[in-house]
Fold:
Amino acid sequence: MNIVVCIKQVPGTTQVKINPDTGTLIRDGVEAVVNPFDEFAIEEALRIKERLGNAVIKVITMGPPQAEEALKSVIAMGADEGFLISDRAFAGSDTWATSYTLARGIKSLGAVDLIICGKQAIDGDTAQVGPGVAEMLGIPFVAWVRKVEDVTETSLRVERMMEDGYEVVEIPLPGLITVVKEINVPRMASLKGKMRAKKAVITKLTATSLSADPEKIGQQGSPTQVLRSFVPERKSGGEKISGEVPDLVNKIKSAVLDLNVIR
Amino acid sequence: MGINVDLEKCIGCSLCVRACGQGAISIVNKKAIIDLEKCNLCAACVEACKKYQAITITKEASGQGKNIVDYKNVAVFIEQRNGEIAGVAYEMLGEGRKLADQLKEKLIAVLMGHGLRQKADELVKYGADKVVYFDSEKLAAFQDDSYAQLLSEFIEAEKPAIVLAGASAIGRSFIPKVAARVWGGLTADCTKLEIDTEKRLLLGTRPAFGGNLMATIICPHHRPQMATVRHKVMKAAVRDEGRTGEVVVHALDGTDIAIRTAVLDIVKDVESTVNITEADIIVAGGRGMQKPENMACIKELAEMLGGAVGASRAAVDAGWIPYSHQVGQTGKTVCPKLYFACGISGSVQHMAGMQSSDYIIAINKDPNADIFQVANLGIVGDALEIVPALTTAFKEALGK
Structure:
């Protein structure tokens, strides 16, 4: 089976700080990591490979040159080959243009049976690219997969997470699934894996090599634009009190009753 | 297209350098220089330089071949499960009505299912000027293929300027497919929707970076402009018996609907009787509760108040409570009217999941706990003592 996993390199959010003078985000010195949801995707691909006994796992990402590091770290986990789609022409891409570009990248990889994506990226938080890529490739798609119950060379039976439970869905291949945190626990890269990753040669793909339509990539191809970005008004913490338990309890009780939210 | 630094305005203060997530800016001879190879036009530097306004991004008109003026009206996708209209759909009708009124255009509700004619008629009472109802057995249960196909066909036929949908499991699954198919601009998980009446544009504001950054998005050259909104963020439409409108029924025999996936089973999660994302009151416990047994007092307070039980990741990872109760970036995002954070220190990821709650009460022994930054009422004390005492106090006060 030919499996493709799409990943994204994102800033590690824990280190996002706000500049107190300007109120803007300070992102210098922030470590870049593989989007956590994509690690679940890679892990599931590795498990499917183990279940079937045979598969090739290709990892693809669209990003600036440093995204190569992200590809290498998942090769270290066990993925077979890495592909970096990187080109100034892609700058300013929104989710539509990204879906188009990734789809073109995947098309260039030859026969693909299964594409696995993480539910969303923790910087953009849109969850739009997985379904977007499926649409661009014209293949069936299931979102929020929390378990792959059964896998054959021609179909998958998965559990799709809903708000109040889950649905069991059968998806024919080639197909695309996006996965959620509940699906597995990603493995750590082994020393052997890390050494392999160090030597891995990443294939670079550009707008030209993908024959990308210039009208559909980068800012040109993006229907949405950021008008402005801003740091949300932080609730500056309200009252902070300490004291004897009975007094604190009374204070809380009256605050809650005033809200009039208990039915 | 591009980004430009006005060298006369730039004073080399390097605020832009620090705001750039791509490391694309450096200061050379006291002026900011942007490496176009690395820049992804995210505009963080433009925002950082708001004092001097030295950085501008020039946006090129993208030709799409669609005539923007052909697109009118606000359409709302009405989600239903098992024949019941989802709460978020009423909220989208309420919000859609406001937007339609500002544009002085119509509100159209789009419903898909089987045997729902009465529900379709009802939608008029909730503000829809027109209801388009697709009826087929094949549409009774949600499937990405069928719903995406019909909504896309509706968009091609009716040409709505704006399409709204709930950001539910269903909405977040198929709406991006529709946006991809029709080349519309989709902004997911909006917390605020506005109209620029001069330019007749939808402004969608949404959180990024787990809520640490807000972005206002526009879709100037493509149609439709699309937005999804989570449940309980907007106000529901109020029923008005006097409202009249048109209901158009498309009874389909199903042969034109192509579905590739098959739903084999639907399993309801019996364990959580109150879905925490629906709850108006949540009492959450964290590592400060110290032992799994102590989560019982969290549960008791929640029950006394008629609310749901939440938990921090620490409590879930420790096995004290199932994952369905986890609040935070990798758990659920909630915005109840009242949120109790008990023995929760307030990591950035936890706060991302609850900071938009209307009223937050935090109880923690550590006066420097981060959770106090978002709490309306901060109690420095031992949750293990205070929570049970609160339950008793409410029991009396509520006469239970």
Q: What stands out?
A: Chain A has a mean pLDDT of 91.
